[in-house]
Amino acid sequence: MTHSLHLTAQHPHAHLIIVTVIGNIDMQTAATMRTQTLEIMQEGPPHVVLDLAQVGFCDSSGLSALIGIWHAAREAGGSLGLADVPDRLMRMLAITGIDSLLTIHATAADAVTAMTDGQAAPSGS
Fold first, then answer.
1. By C-alpha distance, which of 83, 72, 14, 71 is closest to 45?
2. Residue 21: which region, alpha, beta or left (left: phi > 0; alpha: psi -120 to 50)?
3. Does the reported pTM lie above 0.90?
4. How many angstroms separate the CA atoms of 71 and 68, rounded?
5. Is the pLDDT confidence value at 86 over 80?
6. For strand 5-13 and strand 103-105, is the pairing parallel, antiparallel, or unpaired?
7. Any bridge partners for residue 7, and if so which?
8. DSSP 8-class letter at 122
9. Cβ(47)–Cβ(82) under 8 Å?
């Protein structure tokens, strides 16, 4: 298993960033994903969609990183959505109950539509 991870950021809307994650999210790469995503959030709006279509594997370290990113987005008055979640990861999210915390979209385009139609507004937490 390769331990490389690559993130790219796109700004399809003034209030939203899509971060495409390519590779495996595991004990070797989860901290990098979290750190890089938080850096991207600091440079732009705190509303983030992680496009996970090209993630081959995610372990508990990856789940922890996702929760950390979600917390940071909320603390910044933003939100975190996931898009194009692979089946194996979707099962892990459902088993752990994390799917009830995160907004999950079928595609990144669906996320952009949903989050720019007023749904990216910070919740009243």
1. 14
2. beta
3. no
4. 5
5. yes
6. unpaired
7. 21
8. P
9. no
User: In this structure, what DSSP letter does residue 123 have?
Assistant: P
Task: Give 29 or 12, the one with higher predicted confidence.
Answer: 29
Q: Which residues contact 19 (CB under 8 A, 6 or more apart)?
A: 7, 8, 9, 37, 40, 48, 49, 50, 51
Tokens coding 56: 């081959």
Note the pLDDT of residue 4.
85
Q: Is the pLDDT of residue 71 over 80?
A: yes
Is a pLDDT exceeding 50 seen at residue 121?
A: no
In this structure, the dihedral spanned by the alpha carbons of residues 30, 34, 40 and 46, taken in order and rounded to 10 degrees, is 140
Tokens 């979707």 belong to which residue? 90
Question: Tokens 């929760």 correspond to what residue?
Answer: 67
27, 31, 35, 79, 84 from 108: Cα distances, Å: 26, 23, 21, 15, 7
CA atoms within 13 A on the CB side of 114: 18
